[in-house]
Design goal:
Length: 69
Amino acid sequence: MKPHEETEWRCRKCGALLGIRRAGRVHVKHKRAQFVVRGHVMAVCPRCAELNETDSAPPPPAEQPWPAA
Ligand SMILES: [Zn+2]
């Protein structure tokens, strides 16, 4: 995997964009603040209030639940 590859982190329920995984970190923007998180991240979707979890390091491609579009 390329070190600077970016992956979108989207709500598992409604698909709202929650953050961007980049270089082993998760970038989460909220209004005028931006959070850069390493490790395990939990976020409540601003649109549907679903609790989402992710890790800053994405799983291997074979384990990703979503199909390649
Ligand atoms: Zn949602």
